[in-house]
Amino acid sequence: AEKSLHIGWTKQDSGAVNVTCYAEGVYPEPKMELYSDSKNRESLKDIVVQVTKSHEYFDISATKILDSADVQTPTIFDCELKIPEAKYAVKKSVVYYA
Length: 98
Fold this sequence. Notes:
- The protein is mainly β.
- The protein has a single domain, classed as Immunoglobulin-like (Sandwich).
- It is built from no helices and seven strands.
- It has strands at residues 4-11, 16-26, 31-36, 48-54, 57-67, 75-83, 88-96.
- The strands form two sheets. A four-stranded antiparallel beta sheet has the order 1-2-5-4, with no helix packed on it. A three-stranded antiparallel beta sheet has the order 3-6-7, with no helix packed on it.
- A hairpin with a 2-residue loop joins strand 4 and strand 5 (57-67).
- The protein starts with a strand and ends with a strand.
- The mean pLDDT is 94.
């Protein structure tokens, strides 16, 4: 399991929306995906995933930058943290408002 899991978004002056999910203290090595809440639960493409290891545990983050013109309001973004070895998955959501 994980020590903590967070998802949030920020909107930049340029109109870009930055969606970030972050988990820390995960073991064994995790994977992470971001979804937007379309009916087909589409996995967001080209997300940037970074994994760092401290002692035995892993910290992982996933970031996606979207153009606010392409994001309906409200949109629910889901973050899924998966640990394939442990057959473990947990989800956290955040609501985006323009």
